[in-house]
Amino acid sequence: MITTQPRCPHCRGFVYLDTLICPRCEGELGYHVLTRQFHGIRHGRVVIDGTQWYACSNREWACNWLVSEDAPAGRCLSCRLTRRRPEADDTVALDKLARTEEAKRRLLLQLSDLGLPIAPWHAKEGGLGFDLLSSLTDGRPVTIGHANGIITLDLAESLDDRREALRIRLGEPYRTMLGHLRHESGHYYQNVLLTDDRAWWGCRDLFGDERSSYRDALDRHYRLGAPENWHESFISEYATMHPWEDFAETFAHYLHITGTLQTAASLGIHLDAEATTFRDTDVVPQASYRNESVQRLLDDWEWIAQALNRTNRSMGHGDLYPFTLVAPVRRKLSFIHDLVTRAPLDPDAQIAIATAVSVDTARA
Asked: pTM to 2 decimals?
């Protein structure tokens, strides 16, 4: 596993993953996805290990990833995965696109860290792609969802007031663009990771039979809502709608948990048992739980989530993670953990899949 190094190469100051210009030394930065490190760039380029890398052609829309000189286009891997986006003259929508693309890059880094295949839509039928559209500027509804590898998001949800109104109306304690991306990627990876009848039957034992009518389930959910006792078996109300949604919601929470623990590990955060009477042992988050049991993963998360919730409350905010992991949900997370940790690719295999180019693309 490659650990992200969020530091400026010039002044060694901390920078966030979306940083273009270091706020301390004002150095121009580019992010090298292969090593997870920032590099200083001059005139839009930098040499890394003998190879010329260029700033992504979408840098003016806040993309800080670098593109190798032998790439098939001037756009980085993340930007090439975007199949549809607003028109070039729709500057309002493109401003919202920049925020959504930031969340997408964070998702792709995590999927890569987990060793999951990222097969581009343009290189493989049913490959991963993104349609990032705006209902506000297009003048027509945009349905958030997944179909045949393509994840569709409504850029209007990047507006805090709009997203918050929907969150309250739909009874969702957590609703962010990254959350949407993680959920929809769960739909994609359900089909990628479940490769035989045995795996599908194991999935159905926990989540239900995904072959049941989705339309009927959708109508029932929005007409009657979630069952009163939903919290005894599901991670969220939306997860009760259909087995597909239960899997995707659980997959998203697996990414929430592992992503936050990885960040805690990279910052050196741990909980000292001697400093409190709440625990008998230290809690030391891991950068990767690939070789750990799901019990270790969830035990670490229980304590770290409590610490983060208490910190949020001290600032007058609600809980950072306002969910309860009951026994049935833990079993579902265990299933996801087994799927993910059984299917990791080595970095070379990941690069080969992610940089595959279709014949048509190569000619473009």
From this structure: 0.92
